[in-house]
Design a protein that fits this description.
Number of helices of chain B: 2
CATH architecture of one domain in chain A: 2-Layer Sandwich
Number of helices of chain A: 3
Largest sheet of chain B: 6 strands, antiparallel
Number of domains of chain B: 1
Distance between the termini of chain A: 42 Å
Order of helices and strands of chain A: HEHHEEEE
Strand content of chain B: 35-45%
Shape of chain B: rod-shaped
Oligomer: heterodimer
Largest sheet of chain A: 5 strands, antiparallel
């Protein structure tokens, strides 16, 4: 009987774990950290921003100033497809960059965050 | 006889459990990191600045004009979906493919809004909705 136990265990595991799935989707171009760090407040101009980062995804008027918004979304999905029960989890996070320009077209403020760096494939839908 | 009856009961229990659990789906979708009141407790109106908020919470999803200055919005979603197909119980004995599905989805969308004055100091902040962290719950009634 002991001889068969490992085979039985493997058979049960093979039956239960019949499939896994990984999927990924992205929207927008990667916001390069080097390009963002090369922007200097009070010095960099609107033209230089456009050269470094390309055209913004959105232009927002903010109290007489222009704000360029760049964004990128990353989605990672993991599924554990068992015979008895299926678990799936889809995590979506976005990187955002806001470049605030004053009325003279000079960068006044840069707000950015990279939330996609810690994005992982996850199956387990419970907990955090 | 008693022993074989016990084995049969255990077998039936396994079949029942398998039938109950089969075709169960548990799905969760999260967009950005859901914020809780504890996460934003550091914000003090009249003191905290836009840069401090962004340093702790990351850049917002949108920035717009407001009467006092600007308003930033951090959006997030924590969707939970659970589904059970009780029709699987009858599958071994039915010539057709029966379905009796209970499912429920909780979207859990929320947003955290922060209003700033023209100098970038927080004036007020609040959650758009007050989403309670609900468990996975397939019963729709």
């Amino acid at each position: 009987m002991r001889f068969f136990q490992p085979f039985l265990f493997l058979a049960v595991v093979a039956i239960l774990i019949q499939g896994c799935a990984f999927s990924r989707g992205t929207l927008g171009d990667d916001i390069k950290t080097e390009a963002v760090s090369s922007i200097t407040k009070g010095v960099t101009t609107k033209t230089e921003v456009l050269t470094l980062l390309g055209a913004p995804d959105r232009v927002l008027p903010l109290n007489g100033r222009d704000v360029y918004q760049y964004y990128r979304y990353d989605a990672k999905a993991g599924s554990l497809l068992l015979i008895l029960i299926n678990f799936s989890r889809l995590s979506v996070k976005g990187d955002d960059l806001f470049v605030m320009l004053n009325q003279n077209g000079i960068v006044e403020e840069v707000l950015s965050s990279k939330r996609t760096e810690n994005l992982e494939f996850r199956f387990w839908p419970f907990g955090e | 006889m008693l022993r074989s009856h016990g084995h049969f009961t255990i077998f039936l229990l396994f079949v029942l459990m398998g039938g109950l659990c089969s075709a169960c789906n548990v799905v969760r979708v999260t967009l950005n990191t859901p914020l809780t009141p504890d996460d934003v407790a550091f914000i003090v109106p009249g003191q905290t600045t836009l840069l401090e908020v962004i340093d702790r919470l990351g850049s917002p999803d949108s920035i717009n004009n407001s009467e006092t200055g600007i308003v930033s919005v951090h959006r997030f979603l924590d969707m939970k979906y659970a589904r059970v197909n009780f029709g699987w119980l009858a599958k071994p004995w039915s010539p057709v493919d029966p379905d009796l599905i209970f499912s429920r989805t909780g979207f859990g969308t929320d947003a955290f809004q922060v209003f700033y004055d023209s100098n970038g100091i927080v004036v007020q902040h609040s959650f758009l909705r007050h989403v309670i962290d609900r468990p996975f719950h397939p019963y729709p009634f």
